[in-house]
Design goal:
Layout: H1 22-36, H2 43-60, H3 70-86, H4 91-111, H5 118-141, H6 145-158, H7 163-175, H8 179-190, H9 197-211, H10 215-228, H11 233-246, H12 249-262, H13 267-290, H14 296-323, H15 328-340, H16 344-359
Length: 360
Amino acid sequence: MKKLILSIFLLGASTYVNAQKTEVAEAKKTWGIFQAMNQGQNLTKNLDLLNKGLKNTDNAIVNEKTKESLEAWTLRASFSSAIALLDTINNENSIAKQKIAEEALAKAKTLDKKGEEKDNLANAEININNAIQSRGIRAYNKKDFATAFKIFTEITEKNPTDTSMYLNAGVAAKQAGNYKGAVKNFKKVVSFNVPEAKNLLLEVINIELVNLKDTTTALASIDEALVKYPDDPDFVGTQTDIYIIRGEIEKSQASLGKLIAKDPKKAIYQFLMGETYYKQALNVQNERVKLDAKKVKEYNALTTKMTALIDQSLPYYKKAQELDPKATHTLEALKQVYGFKNDTKNYEETKKLLDALQKK
């Protein structure tokens, strides 16, 4: 978070008021006292002083002589924005003072034709943003995730390029069970091409699959991800799993076939092609388990089908292992295949390789 910026108030020539305008003069004096003292002292003392100065500006902006005073409105923005930031106890008061600060800022900006109070107004604006952010963090820490999401969203509306707040909004939304809100904000962060873009896309897809249970939307997100990260094995692997779950094996194998043709030495593509057959075999095995023991003919037919699928997976797994001998996921798959086929020799050799890798 940006630190509290309460700069020494600079009085522009155009905002100089005559001695009769005592409310503005008192407000300015109070502001100077506040800046000179230790702002880390008792919160109540800080707020009392700031409220005193704000009261002076209340009177100044209704006085005929000072209601259009740039200095009065700038001081008003400074006092109220400081209260909004410093009052960490009373959220309602913080929000109320934030609104006053925003109104004062808007008025001061229309009066500041020459930009003489530009820095002071910018400081007040920073205080407002930090006040909102502080409330969001406090809500999150209290596990009031719905409120935190609302507050972080408010910040993004004020600062539409603040990637950290979109990320905060996404995290808070997910914690609140607002999964669509989480996806929307994570995708917004990705649009800024941040270093974490890939991981956020994977998180988006995981939310769509696990929380929203929407494979169609997840596949669309994977297509978007593959435009940004062509042929990335993480996205291709997830896409393969979705196609298998949906029973669209042909689509998966067609996609992987193109990738293998493009890069036949990419071990992960060979492995995933093996998976398309092996996972079909597991589905057949589940069918067989549920079968009535008396249905011998059907049982044997399923066994034949399962064995054929496992045999089809084997060449791809072996090729993957050849290309990447240290890939434990491939060795695990081969061990399972050899176990099913009662191929003791290859099973033991594969297990030995796997055990050696896992000891390192």
